What we know:
The protein has helices spanning 35-41, 105-113, 126-136, 145-148, 164-174, 199-202, 208-213, 231-244, and strands spanning 3-8, 25-28, 49-54, 57-58, 70-75, 98-100, 118-120, 139-142, 156-158, 194-197, 217-220, 226-228. By secondary structure, it is of the alpha/beta class. The strands form three sheets. A five-stranded mixed sheet has the order 2-1-5-3-4, with no helix packed on it. A four-stranded parallel sheet has the order 7-6-8-9, sandwiched between helices. Residues 78-82 have low confidence and may be disordered. Zinc ion binds at residues 187, 189-190, 192, 220, 222-223, 225.
Amino acid sequence: MAEAQFRFYEELNDFLPPERRRQDIRYEIRERETVKHAIEACGVPHAEVELILVNGKSVGFAYIIQEDDRISVYPQFETMDISPLLNVRDQPLRNPRFIADVHLGGLAKYLRMLGFDTLYSESSTDEEIAAVSSREKRIVLTRDRDLLMHKIITHGRFIRATRIRDQLIEVVEYLDLSRNFSPFSRCMECNTKLVPVNKEQIMDKLPADTQSYYTQFSMCTFCDRIYWQGSHYRRMNRFITEIFGNNNDNAAVF
Ligand SMILES: [Zn+2]
């Protein structure tokens, strides 16, 4: 019976049963089995895998496993640039854009607050999420491991944290996004980019106290929501500073 040896690194171990974590795993190979198939048979969604080394050489998902191969499987790297080594897919995604599953509406809003393009609908099916992620090259954020095993999804993250605040920290740290913040530049409700707007144009839509206290406004051209630096803005700003430090220098001025 032909066997190969697997080792999963870092957080990919989260998907393994406790007794198989952080150690060499003997794996019985089927005939002409791809490394992608074997990785998922071990329980690890391919969308979280960034690098596969077989006997020290980088291979793609379609690699056919040979007897006695030693296979090391790595997740997305946060700090080390491994792009010269990558064979799994064409290239890592730059300027990441997201699509969140139906369980992650809160996280989606907070990512938008930081300026990240994040699609979310409470009625999306797994098939729709997979199709949009593939078509628009969006990273799938999900609490459902099976969704990440969808064939056409290339980049995804199984969100470990359960509290929204921790989920946001998890995504920012996972993709090292803290330098890419553009807070308050995007509508938290519908994901559309905000545009500055003159007070005179929107005067009739503002509460009376806001009319007199604030001078800078921005607006969502899709859902007509108006944003200004009121108590909500200050609360959000405090939240960003609290969890990420002073990374919000690029906050949109409106
Ligand atoms: Zn909007």
